[in-house]
Amino acid sequence: xxxxxxxxxxxxxxxxxxxxxxxxxxxxxxxxxxxxxxxxxxxxxxxxxxxxxxxxxxxxxxxxxxxxxxxxxxxxxxxxxxxxxxxxxxxxxxxxxxxxxxxxxxxxxxxxxxxxxxxxxxxxxxxxxxxxxxxxxxxxxxxxxxxxxxxxxxxxxxxxxxxxxxxxxxxxxxxxxxxxxxxxxxxxxxxxxxxxxxxxxxxxxxxxxxxxxxxxxxxxxxxxxxxxxxxxxxxxxxxxxxxxxxxxxxxxxxxxxxxxxxxx
Amino acid sequence: xxxxxxxxxxxxxxxxxxxxxxxxxxxxxxxxxxxxxxxxxxxxxxxxxxxxxxxxxxxxxxxxxxxxxxxxxxxxxxxxxxxxxxxxxxxxxxxxxxxxxxxxxxxxxxxxxxxxxxxxxxxxxxxxxxxxxxxxxxxxxxxxxxxxxxxxxxxxxxxxxxxxxxxxxxxxxxxxxxxxxxxxxxxxxxxxxxxxxxxxxxxxxxxxxxxxxxxxxxxxxxxxxxxxxxxxxxxxxxxxxxxxxxxxxxxxx
Lengths: 264, 253
Ligand SMILES: Nc1ncnc2c1ncn2[C@@H]1O[C@H](COP(=O)(O)OP(=O)(O)OP(=O)(O)O)[C@@H](O)[C@H]1O
Ligand SMILES: [Mg+2]
Prior knowledge:
The structure holds 2 protein chains of 2 kinds. Helix content of chain A is 41%, strand content 22%. By secondary structure, chain A is an alpha/beta fold. Chain A has a single domain, classed as P-loop containing nucleotide triphosphate hydrolases (Rossmann fold, 3-Layer(aba) Sandwich), CATH 3.40.50. In chain A, the strands form 2 sheets. Chain A has a 6-stranded mixed β-sheet, with helices on both faces. Chain A has a 4-stranded antiparallel β-sheet with strand order 2-1-4-5, covered by helices on one side. Chain B is 71% helix and 6% strand. Chain B has helices at residues 2-10, 18-35, 38-55, 60-78, 108-134, 137-146, 151-180, 187-218, 237-252, and strands at 84-86, 93-99, 102-107. In chain B, helix 2 (18-35) runs antiparallel to helix 3, helix 2 runs parallel beside helix 9 and helix 4 packs antiparallel against helix 5 (108-134). Chain B is globular, with a radius of gyration of 24 Å. Chain A binds chain B through residues 49, 51, 73-74, 77-78, 81-82, 84, 86, 88-90, 92-95, 97-98, 101-103, 105-107, 114-115, 132, 134-137, 150-151, 154, and chain B through 5-6, 9, 136-138, 141, 158-159, 161-162, 165-166, 169, 208, 211-212, 214-222, 225-231. Adenosine-5'-triphosphate binds next to helix 1 of chain A.
């Protein structure tokens, strides 16, 4: 659905954050982007809905090169929703409800629709009780959930989230991942940036490894994380479920902890 | 701002019509200023206190602390008005010195005038405080939106409000971080830490503005904040009736 051809990006101060990126992001996929700190994950994410424009190379949506005019960006951003790394920096309304309403209202929906969408996402993320609260009175994890809700309420085809799970407790992480699964089942694409390799391994259909601004690997998690050269390059340990599976000679390797336990 | 907003959000009055609260507060303010009489000022102050503590359930201690702080400030700024200068010593002089080319001192009429002014100021401030401790900022902003205040003005208020909070939170967390690394252990070190904090806050302010702007665009934000208000408020007729009664009384006195 989204295609990146030979994208390179330099920050104004001369830092080259992305080098010759070639990627295809298909519909109906759960994609995890992993990579060391400073490898360019957030920068890559910002390319995907035109917040940053590549220094060279092209981004295409549904086979069409993205048009960086105001109108073209508007269209792209309707299809690609971004949840940023810092929740604090993306909430600007005074109350939770108002913030979630922001995107849908900008889409020109009528009040009944907006109301229905707020109710649906609030329920899905377990923040119904917070709707009337002022943003500044929320905890970090609550803010992140509101940020996710604000993007989901716009019903984007592609959801790109920068470390959305980092500030959430285990139960809520699972709830959010289940929510993402439902969206993917619906034919949409969810891309998350994460540092949790175990989670990336268990959840994703596809893993993209970024290091030093370059794509090192793109593929099924079982294949990517079995590649010792990649793990060494990034200084990572193999996801434990995969390591145990390999040690025990399980083929195919167990996908999740539950899967592994069932097969022991 | 921080404290007032928190109090407002917790007060029982938060569920009542912001329009009625604004009408009450501003109406009473105009009565105090317009009728300009000591009994009116005292009555207004008592009424506002009664409603804040009795009706909105803001704790009396909080209310008087706020009022005391502001009254002290008001009182200090009125000290200069204590003295009257005239060509010669007036009949109602209480204390003073003859100085060429006239007389400087305290007179009875001057004291009355000062008392009147002080009471009126305190009553006026109390009216605005009532609004501050019963109505959260976002209710006021929505009210302004509903009554078609200029969009630009509303957006400015909205962004500023949100921004002040961000700034405040950043300030708090940076200061805490400095304190936990002994950044304020002595006066000299403290000065340096404060200077660093100031400089850093400036950069952080810019970055945060930039980030907010980016996410505004990512969610298709246009030139202004779309209007969305769903919280329904109860009418606060007791406020309106009291205001009407006060106007009638003030006119009769
Ligand atoms: N505004 C900026 N100006 C200049 N260089 C920047 C800017 N933002 C990021 N960089 C640089 O670009 C590179 C990629 O940064 P990016 O934020 O994309 O990393 P990341 O993979 O998201 O890291 P993390 O895991 O820490 O979030 C880094 O070397 C960083 O120093
Ligand atoms: Mg990042």
